[in-house]
Amino acid sequence: MRRLAFALIALASILLIAMPAAADFALEIYGNANQDDTIDWDDVKFVQGIINGSNNATELADANYDGIIDDKDIAQIELIMQGKEKNLTITQYLKTSKELVITKKPVTVTIPIKSIAALSGTYGPYMLCALGDNDKIVAVLSGAMERGEIKDLIDDKSVVGTSNDDWDMEKILKIKPDIVLGYASFDLSEQRKILEASGIALVQMNFNRPETYKNEVRIIGWLLGKQERAEKLINFEQEHMDFIKERTENLSREEMPRVYAETYRDYRYGGSSSSIGLSVGPCGGIDIFEQVGVSTDIDPEEVISKDPQVIIHMTAENYISDSGYNAINSSQIEKRIADIENRTGWDHIDAVKDGKVYIITSDAASIHPSIFQTYVAKWLHPELFKDLDPVAVHEEWLQKFLGIKYKGVFAYPLL
After folding, report:
1. Is the preceding omega at residue 413 within 30 degrees of 0, hence cis?
2. Which stretches of 270-407 are assigned E, i.e. beta strand?
3. Handedness of CA 211, 215, 218, 224 (dihedral sign)
4. Cα dist. 265→95, 319, 322 in Å?
């Protein structure tokens, strides 16, 4: 048997890389040798070509992640295709707010996964519920227990922490889940050491980022044997994102309204990486602080001078308690809008004069950013999206993936 020594880079636990664009993502599972969106016979043929010398080696061709590309990798790919693999090695892209680079870190997970400590805020347990695997959740963070859409699905789970990087490790080790699911945007290296010493894999993913959504959802689908369900989630996002893009991509700058995107607190710009910051441009608007980029406090006089035509304030339940799925009415949100409109000097701003001050909850984004953007697109271009009903889109997602009815107040006022 001819063996090909794979580059040592495949054995490295950490690689410093530039983040690929969303469109560049292949299915980042070792075994996807030809780097498309699935693992199939084409990958077997590709690995055979590497062994024979007719194909160049790829990192993902090392299906069993042992640093060598040989017939054992073909055997692993065939097991994956049959759903009989004993483990899968996946790629994680890790980046904390303090780091300038993204760390590419493979992790090997034992299959099948029977129990999960879903500790990536609300998004981890939310995604598992959407995939129909809430029965595999054995532990969550306290905040997830208050998330209205999934509360009834996780009310029997253990609480093992209060924040995304503050976990009760002793309790987690006692529960001993097959994997711990955490955010990719937190430094969990110390927790990883403790977990791995006990034979527990730490998988870090972000399900709330449009640019990585397809990759992360597809991978978790393969890990859980829920590929078909994962593709339905991906297709829903793509369908609605494409719908918005088709109607806004050819707008001239003169046709785009100027938008002030405020996040949570008074005069706090959300930044280009926030849910609202990621939505203004794709929904056909001009972010008046697009050159600032990062989340920061803003001089209110500067907002007045830039005269936005639309103001969108993003909130959450810890800022406006009567908001989101659990909201009983819109009175608190209406008061918040009035407070914004009554800020000193803001009566001269076009958005205030024209009654275009809106509030949206971060819950509208969650693991379905297309819904958040549907609300925003409707506000920015009501005529262009006259036939679009954001609530209907939101309701469709909730019924299709969680089996629940739409209720509460996620965005206000609705047009």
Report:
1. yes
2. 286-287, 296-297, 310-315, 357-361
3. negative
4. 25, 8, 16
* Rg, C-alpha atoms of the chain: 23
Residue-wise pLDDT tens digits, 269-320: 988 889 999 999 999 999 999 999 889 999 999 999 999 999 999 999 999 9
| Residue 113: partners with Cβ closer than 8 Å, 6 or more residues away | 136, 178, 179, 223, 224
Tokens of 195: 């977990």
Question: Rounded to the nearest 5°, which phi and psi values hold at 175?
Answer: -70, -35
Domains and CATH numbers, the chain: 1-92 (no CATH), 251-412 (3.40.50.1980)
Secondary structure (3-state) at 109: strand
Q: What is the pLDDT of residues 62-104, one digit of tens each?
A: 999 999 999 999 999 999 999 999 999 999 988 776 666 788 8
CB distance 146 to 317 below 8 Å: yes
